[in-house]
Design a protein that fits this description.
The protein is of the alpha/beta class. Helices cover 31% and strands 19% of the residues. Bound molecules: zinc ion (ZN). Zinc ion binds next to loops.
């Protein structure tokens, strides 16, 4: 991502729409990527670490590894929690090893969503569903099964190719205003735009949401899912902070972003995915057919009760995270003093934040197991812990299995529950260190 250089003098007020746009959506390193306010309030400084998804090959272990600062700030004006702009490599998302279809939980979630939304919006063979960050077609495949036209937009070419071979039309591109305009001019506007867990990944938030406004038919609906910042704070989910996640949204912060682009949130669901997510239903602000539901009012009130509009709520987070680190290290030190063998399950991005921030490497964890063949044979960034096929757990018979993707812990416990046959126990690091019985 090229740096935006800022001209010295500012003649416009700091938060004017023109000002935000002229600076590429607040992409300057010192300003909020939502509203343009200077970013001065620290939320959490995790130090420097390698990119969470950049697993290493055996050959790369001998090369220097690039570490980037990982420091989240909160905007004092719109309360958007966000990473300070850093020099992100161009190819951060172009060869992604994350394939959505490798999680059963996530596939079930996608299928349920499609079953629910088709009748709700009356989608049929004349409709168009566009998914932004469509990955390997994990979601759109269920619309295709029902004969509903779809278009996937996915920047990682290797991942998009998987979708295309499954018969899901996919465009290899980053989404933004320019692409949306091209699509609209080519007669493609959407009845439904799905953007699940992508808003956080967007460096230029205002350009992205402008694109959504352009791509959406006048009566269309945008459905957006993201992990809820309220849960991140309440459950100390600090490991969900990593370089690929630029923004962390409360309901209020998201509402302010959409309102700036003449969009309104008219309905909302709270979901258990990713440690507690929100699904927002968004329409054009002038779409009178979409009336705000009581859930919207209730969520606004919940956030007010949790003081999500008070800086003090954000200021105390760093201390909670330090405590979580001490607790996890205490577990490991005791386990190792007692000569226990510990392995990790799931080479998830969040695991790399956790391990690197806590300084837990090969001295504590023998290996990580992951069912994704694209990750097997590689090494975790920073810690260089090797990643193996889950079968390796059967040979190693570890005393403890640390579940890194705690958001799908139930699925993992079911999949490798056999560790209990030799007295093995599961350990979940978040929200507090828990050794499961
Ligand atoms: Zn802001």
């Amino acid at each position: 991502m090229p740096e935006q250089s800022e001209p010295g003098g500012q003649s416009q007020p700091l938060h004017s729409e023109e000002n935000i746009r002229s600076r590429g959506g607040g992409r300057d390193r010192r300003t909020c990527r939502g509203c343009g306010e200077p970013l001065i309030i620290s939320f959490l400084d995790l130090g420097a670490m390698p990119l969470a998804n950049s697993l290493l090959t055996a050959e790369q272990l001998n090369n220097p590894e690039i570490y980037y600062p990982l420091h989240a700030f909160v905007c004092g004006r719109c309360f958007l929690v966000q990473l300070e702009q850093y020099n992100a490599p161009e190819d951060m998302f172009s060869n992604y090893v994350y394939f959505s279809s490798f999680s059963d939980t996530w596939l079930a979630h996608a299928r349920d969503y499609v079953e629910e939304i088709i009748p709700q919006l009356g989608l049929d063979s004349d409709s168009l569903v566009v998914e932004i960050a469509s990955n390997d077609g994990y979601l759109l495949q269920y619309f295709v099964e029902k004969g509903i036209p779809v278009l996937g937009i996915e920047p990682a070419a290797n991942v998009a190719r998987v979708a295309i071979t499954k018969g899901i039309p996919s465009k290899v591109a980053f989404f933004g205003e320019a692409l949306a305009r091209d699509l609209a001019e080519g007669g493609k506007q959407a009845d439904l735009i799905v953007a699940n867990n992508v808003l956080a990944h967007v460096p230029d938030l205002n350009d992205f949401v402008t694109g959504m406004t352009r791509l959406l038919k006048s009566g269309g609906v945008i459905s957006v899912e993201f992990p809820h910042l309220l849960n991140l704070i309440n459950q100390t989910q600090f490991d969900t902070i990593y370089h690929e996640h630029f923004s962390y949204f409360s309901f209020g912060a998201a509402e302010r972003v959409f309102a700036r682009h003449k969009l309104k949130i008219f309905d909302v669901r709270e979901l258990p995915t990713h440690g507690g997510s929100l699904r927002l239903y968004v329409a054009h602000a002038d779409n009178e057919a979409k009336v705000e539901t009581t859930q919207v009012g209730r969520l606004r009130q919940n956030e007010r009760k949790a003081s999500m509009d008070q800086i003090v709520t954000y200021a105390g987070f760093a201390d909670k995270v330090k405590q979580a680190k001490l607790d996890l290290l205490s577990f490991f030190v005791e386990a190792k003093r007692n000569s226990r063998r510990v392995v990790a399950y799931g080479a998830a991005a969040k695991g790399n934040t956790l391990l690197n921030y806590c300084g837990i490497g090969k001295d504590f964890i023998d290996f990580a197991a992951d069912r994704n063949p694209h990750k097997q044979g590689l090494y975790l960034p920073g810690t260089h812990i090797p990643v193996y096929h889950p079968e390796k757990i059967l040979d190693a018979r570890p005393d403890f299995v640390l579940i890194l993707p705690w958001n799908i812990k139930d699925e993992i416990v079911k999949t490798i529950g056999y560790i209990r046959e030799w007295g093995g126990r599961f350990v979940v690091p978040i929200p507090t260190v828990e050794v499961m019985n």
